[in-house]
Amino acid sequence: MGDYIELSEKLNCPADGVFEFYSRQCYLFPTIMPTVFKEVKRIKPEGSERNWTFVNAASCGSWMDTVGPIDTENKSIKWTLLAGDVPLKSYKSLSVVHHFSISEGGCVAKVVLTFEKKHDHGPVPIDYMKVLCDMLRAVEEYVQNDTH
C-alpha cells in the first residue's frame, strides 16, 4: 500500500461545484493554472485515462493517470498514476484521493496522497502535495467566479 500524506483545506465554495470540476472538468486546469499545466487531455474520448503535460517539462515531464473510482454520493474521486518519467524515477506508485464534504460557508477538501518509494531513502512527495493544494485553490477561485 505504501505511505501517505494528507491535508484538509477549507474552501469557500460548494462541495458540489468542486467535485464537479474534479470529476468532469480537469481539462480546464491549463486555463486556470497556465503557469503549471500546458495541457490535460483524455487518452480516449470515453476513457478514464488522461495525459497531463506540465509547463516545466524538465522537472515535471508528462504524466498519465486513470480516474476512478468516482463516488458521487460521498463526493470522492481517486486518481492513480500510470506513467510519467519524472515521478517514476522516485516512486513505484502514486495515487490521490480527493474527498469534498459540505461545511458551513463552503466545503472541506481532504486530499490523501499515497505513495510507494522506489528506494528507502527516496523523498516524500511534499512538492506534489503543494501542487495538489495549489490546484484546490485554483478550483476554489474558478467555482466562486463561475457564472453558468
TrEMBL record:
Q: Which residues form the Bet v I/Major latex protein domain?
A: 1-146
One GO biological process term is:
defense response
| Domain of life, source organism | Eukaryota
Database matches in InterPro entries: Bet_v_I/MLP, MLP-like, START-like_dom_sf
Q: Which PANTHER family match?
A: BET V I_MAJOR LATEX PROTEIN DOMAIN-CONTAINING PROTEIN, POLYKETIDE CYCLASE/DEHYDRASE AND LIPID TRANSPORT SUPERFAMILY PROTEIN
Q: Which family does it belong to?
A: Belongs to the MLP family.
State what protein this is by name: Bet v I/Major latex protein domain-containing protein
